[in-house]
């Protein structure tokens, strides 16, 4: 067994698999993970704030940018994690497999780190096109809880590997005078030296390894290493460049693989949840529809004509989704705070918005005071110069600055001062 | 000493975050769903360590054997193109499948991903061929320069 593991490790040796490569890639991947975690946590708490939390409403594109970064960094993680795992793959076959309790824990933590990282970025990607049938778990809650596992195991991994990380962090310390990566002392005898594998004496397997070993070794290790990094760079540029147009409009021309496309949808805006899927068409199209506005014991109903008769404001705000896509739009309608004043709501209170949609976890949302009383927060009746499409929330929807699209409640039924 | 302090600090931070993850999981996800998460975890390891990594290794060995006479740079360009094609395929094929199954909104997966993937492969082949041709020209010119320098 030991010979077999040893043979695997030897066969997998290549100049690009070395501690310096692992550290250089680890830095990039760690940075991408932290970006994803920070932007994900921001999105989580803006949707489920803890008591006393307040959020910025400016710049208006704050949420749009953070979630664009979340998804783009997440996509970039695919080539980065594959490259990182490639650089350390021979260590999977280290001998002896377990040296003691501490070593067992270390290997278990790496297994958890790799599994949770692959899991997290994969379900994140699949969620962007809502293939929920593949998930035997609730996406949002699972993605949130496993994010702590990923970052926790990242911290443990850095702690365990810190001596190697510090040693190979700077390029000048990582290479010798011939431009070769300096070997790690503890593995000097077996890790980075290619040995003939014809004599390991394990029957058919030995012949397989001998066949592998007879493959010519790379003639120019420097070219091999540079080629590896160029490949990783091109792969990251490809996955990011061909999808980021869903978040960054000037790059829309290159968006051929993202699950959303700017300008595609009713009112030339993408739609996540349609009126049909939300089962609101009859109620939303009813001529008797009114928006019920309540503060304490005071309740007033406004039909669309009455809403249109109020002072109309026009604002440019993005519709931005946690799934990474976003698009700026021009919205028109009365301010939420004007409606609240009509029913005598106390300035600075939170506002609950209820949709005509039933049974969805986002049918009822709460707007914190900083959003509800913002001058830019509207009951939108029009978008980009046209009446709201039914899929965009006709007869009326919320639109507020720096807020997730899923909280910009569509098909409004009522708003209430809390 | 400083390294040791950092190590303990990071270890404690990591354990605290793992604990937080466990608490959040217990609060937000029903225990009956844990088995599904575990299956995904194990599946991810099997797919990477058992399928993707050995396949990449096998392709590398075969290429190293078959293309032993080809300049290293050319082999690196071809291998790089294969890696890029493979990663894009892994990301785009699920979109092709989901689009084929159908989505709840016409804005979700609105593009022709299968066609785009085909065009991407074609462009990649073209760019790879150009990169190889470019290298060949440079390489030949350099060889000529070297041999004329030798003769001089």
Descriptive notes:
- The complex is a heterodimer of chains A (418) and B (152).
- Chain A has 418 residues and is α+β, with helices and mostly antiparallel strands.
- Chain A has 13 helices and eleven strands.
- In chain A, strand 3 (313-320) and strand 4 form a beta hairpin.
- In chain A, 47% of the residues are buried.
- Chain B is extended, with a radius of gyration of 25 Å.
- Chain B has 152 residues and is mainly α.
- Chain B has one domain.
- The termini of chain B are far apart.
- Chain B has helices at residues 2-28, 34-66, 72-101, 113-151.
- Helix content of chain B is 85%, strand content 0%.
- The chains are: A alpha+beta (418), B mainly alpha (152).
Global mean pLDDT of chain B: 92
Strand content of chain A: 5-15%
N-to-C SSE string of chain A, H for helix and E for strand: HHHHHHHHHHEEHEEHEEHEEEEE
Question: What is the CA–CA distance across the termini of chain B?
Answer: 61 Å
- Cα-based radius of gyration of chain A, to the nearest Å: 28 Å
* Low-pLDDT ranges of chain B: none
Q: If you average the pLDDT of chain A, what whole number results?
A: 91
- Shape category of chain A: elongated
Global structural class of chain A: alpha+beta
Number of domains of chain B: 1
